[in-house]
Amino acid sequence: MHRSLYKKASDTDRAYSPGVWADCTVLDYILRGTGHVLEERFLLPASVAASGAWQGQMPWEIYSSAAGPTLTAVDGGGLTISSDDDNEQVAFSSLNGAPFLIAAGEGRLWFEARIKVSTIANTKFGFFMGLAEAGAAAANQPLAADGTLADINLVGFHHLEADGDMLDTVYKADGQVAQTKQADAITLVADTYIKPAMYFDGTILRFFSNGVELSGNVTAAQIAAATFPNDKYLAPCFGISNAAGGSPGTATIERIRVVQELL
């Protein structure tokens, strides 16, 4: 069924959102090699603690800024990131390279994750979820120590430290001013999963929440502008930066899928 004909009902269940994926032939891309497909449900060992350095947990690279932050597997699939002190950071990005490019003349792209936070109180932590340049999981990346976006290439969803119950849709090219496409685009509820998503139709980039399209599209002209990372290949990236010492809360990602067709 073509995506424009599908009833786009909001939901937060484990299934990928039909309103985003209705016209994505994932199996065809896999079997015929006509697209890049990355899917992860984080079926990891019980503990994958990162301690102050890069660590490899195939197919992901993990950065932790101190001994306190940990990554803990969730029963049935998922990864919870937690910490215990001010300005500690944890981030991970794909070790499978960065094959995804959002630019004129490129194939369609689909992205969806399922995530939740343990608290929506202000000044606890900030996070970024989306696509970023290769090696984005590093010191003060994808977020700077103050929770703002690092000076790297990225596009996705930004949770501001000072706005604990909201997600903004954002994009940034390195060396350029970060662009907020829609402030307060998604409302967060503590311990409740949401499904942030993106769809690039070859011309326009659209953002979604729980299968329903949001109001702020990135136009073709904006994608072609210097502020958008249209010349950089990107990969999935998720990172947090704490804003409060002592029990700042946790962020959990259950799964992620990114697909781009090859033209």
Layout of helices and strands:
Layout lengths: L17 H4 L4 H7 L2 E6 L14 E3 L2 E5 L5 E4 L5 E4 L6 E6 L14 E9 L7 E9 L20 E6 L6 E7 L6 E9 L8 E5 L4 E5 L2 E2 L6 H5 L9 E9 L7 E12 L2
Antiparallel strand pairs: 1-16, 2-3, 3-6, 4-5, 5-16, 6-15, 7-12, 7-16, 8-9, 8-15, 9-10, 10-11, 12-13, 13-14
Attribute tags:
single chain, mainly beta, 8-stranded antiparallel beta sheet
Description:
This protein is mainly beta and 263 residues long. The protein is built from three helices and 16 strands. Strands 1, 4, 5, 7, 12, 13, 14 and 16 form an eight-stranded antiparallel sheet that branches. It has an eight-stranded antiparallel sheet with strand order 2-3-6-15-8-9-10-11, with no helix packed on it. The radius of gyration is 17 Å and the shape is globular. The mean pLDDT is 87.
Summarize this, please?
With 263 residues, the chain is mainly beta.
Roughly what percent helix? under 10%
- The beta-strand count equals 16
Number of helices: 3
Low-confidence stretches: none
Largest sheet: 8 strands, antiparallel
Query: What value does the average pLDDT take?
Result: 87
Protein structure class: mainly beta
**Shape designation:** globular
Q: Specify Rg, calculated over alpha carbons.
A: 17 Å
Strand content: 35-45%
Distance between the termini: 21 Å
What string, H for helix and E for strand, traces the elements in order? HHEEEEEEEEEEEEEEHEE
